[in-house]
Amino acid sequence: MNASLPRWADLLLLPLVSLMVALAVAGGVVALVGQDPLLVIEVLIQGAFGTARGLSYTLYYATTFVLTGLAVAVAFHGGLFNIGGEGQAVMGGLGTGLVAIWWSAFLPAWLMLPLMMLAGALFGMAWAAVPGYLQAYRGSHVVITTIMFNFIASSVLVYLLVNHLRPPGNMSVESAEFAASAKLPGIHLVLGWLGINWPASPLNLSVVLALLAAVLVYFFLWHTRAGYRLRAVGSSPSAAQYAGIRAPHQVLVAMAISGALAGLVGMNEIAGVSHKLLLEFVSGAGFTGIAVALMGRNHPFGIVLASLLFGALFQGGAEVAFEVQGFSRDMVVMLQGFIVLFSGAMTYVIAPQLARVLAWFVPAKRNAPETGVSHG
After folding, report:
1. Around Cβ 221, how many Cβ atoms within 10 Å?
2. Which among 29, 113, 128, 316 is least buried, having the fewest CB atoms inside 10 angstroms?
């Protein structure tokens, strides 16, 4: 939290101002290359939210970003910068896929889907716990180890798919399709059961899982003793240790929970969409989660809103690249980059200016008048 801003301003107003500044700068760059910034924004918003199908794709992308953003935020509150969400999501998807490959042919969906979710969380947790242990008990820096574990996770997935999980004679590097019990229903099917006509899209019941995860993370961090201990270590490990909290243990707990959240990405991408284990199903979502957590000020509510924003950028950006002549996908990436820049490092530049502006409208509280009573 920025000490010069009220809590509400730090969580809500500062990200909004940062977004406006990022859009203004990006609009200037778009104008310089000969495009109409207002047209680009209009097409982007229409593509992301203007149709039921566009909204579904936006929510589908946002589902993954909520999970990876929460993973970054939990580690951050424990005093750690976990940039291994990519690898943890890969390993979580591997766990989800292995359970489906082994057991989906003979287990019912009511048992299969919870087992896939549990396996994904446990695989992601185990993959994050190793850097956590090395940080807590061996002094290795978690940033370095999580970077390395991203590459190792990708290599493990490639090795298993190429040499063990790919069906014989199949040239594509992917597993066989799961049985029906391992397929998470799409939202259009669920709404169809309720008599609501909704266009088909990748959006599936994982969106409910992501929202539930956000609520649980909020209650864990701010309404449980375990969450308080984790945040205490993140604020000051030495003070927490002095108060009787085992700081190394909390580091391990923070990384384990963080990895479990990232591992749930497999439910959205593997169980909900592809219905098979394949390469590149994470596609950078672990790194996008870092930007989402920064934009959301590491608060679950802010992360949900930031995930919607990035989901809209992914979906609306694809529409812009298709609809606006001369506007490439690279320009959409540029827009995302400006948002990351201004929601991250540039907040330290924007925050003091915003605090001065707020001071004009919200006067500082005056000290209570002296009563003249002596307190000795």
Report:
1. 22
2. 29
Q: What pLDDT, in 10s, does the model give residues 21-49?
A: 888 888 888 888 788 888 888 888 899 99
Question: How crowded is residue 8: how many other Cβ atoms within 10 Å of its Cβ?
Answer: 9
Task: Give the C-alpha separation, 212 to 67, whole Å.
Answer: 10
Given a cut of 90, is residue 354 above it in pLDDT? no
> What 3-state DSSP class applies to 33?
coil
Number of domains in the chain: 1
Q: Which domain holds residue 273?
A: 60-196+203-294
Beta bridge partners of 186: 204
Residue 358 domain-assigned? no
Q: Is 283 left (phi over 0), alpha (psi -120 to 50) or beta?
A: left
Confirm if 306 and 188 have CB atoms less than 8 A apart: no
CB 286 within 8 A of CB 85: yes
Residue type, 120: G
The C-alpha atoms of residue 74 and residue 149 are separated, in whole angstroms, by: 19
> pTM to 2 decimals?
0.90
Percentage of the chain with pLDDT > 70? Answer: 94
Contacts of 222 (CB under 8 A, 6+ apart): none
Phi, psi for residue 367 in degrees, rounded to 5: -65, 150
Question: If you compute the radius of gyration of the chain from its CA atoms, what whole number of angstroms results?
Answer: 23
97: three-class secondary structure by DSSP: helix
